[in-house]
Amino acid sequence: MCSDPSFAQVYNELRTIAAFQLANERRDHTLSPTALVNEAYLRMQTSNTWIMEEDGAKSRFLAAAGEAMRRILVDYARKRRAVKRGGGKFPIQLPEDLADKQQQTDLVLSIDEALCRMRHEWPDLVTLVELRFFLGLKMTEVAQTLGIPLRTAERNWQFAKAWLRTEISK
């Protein structure tokens, strides 16, 4: 897709992450992993967050990619729930697998709204949630990406999950 060597370095990793994310979406999702990565790249390129020339830039790049993918999936979820598509109303009788996918769409939207509120008090926790929930990174990878000890990342993840549960259940 692009000739940028810094992007090429992480393209396969981003595609794997995108495939992981889309596996949790509904089956009739119109995005493929490649399309999600490409769309994230385009969004990042317009905001100049795709440049990785200095040390530690890959971590910032992955964090930016996680945020871009989250925003893309949230945009798609919002469009799906738009009034012209039923305004969030769905048939009463749904097979379990489709109901789970709808719950996933609702969860993505709820988490996005909560993350917007969280960003005011704990912006670092927002990045942690994006890396863990939206990119599906393991805790060791999250800690390494954020440059913090594993135990700190685990404590922050526990706090973020508890805070999000409280915010989403309001």
Describe how the helices and strands are arranged.
Blueprint: H1 5-23, H2 33-46, H3 57-80, H4 96-121, H5 123-134, H6 139-146, H7 150-168
Number of strands: 0
Q: Percent of residues in helical segments?
A: over 70%
Alpha-beta classification: mainly alpha
List the helices and strands in order.
HHHHHHH
Using the alpha-carbon principal axes, give the shape.
globular
Estimate the strand proportion: under 5%
Please tell me about this protein's structure.
By secondary structure, this protein is mainly alpha-helical. It has one domain. It is 72% helix and 0% strand. The longest helix has 26 residues. The termini are far apart. About 7% of the residues have low confidence.
Short description:
The chain is an all-alpha fold. It has helices spanning 5-23, 33-46, 57-80, 96-121, 123-134, 139-146, 150-168.
Task: Note the main attributes of this structure.
170 residues
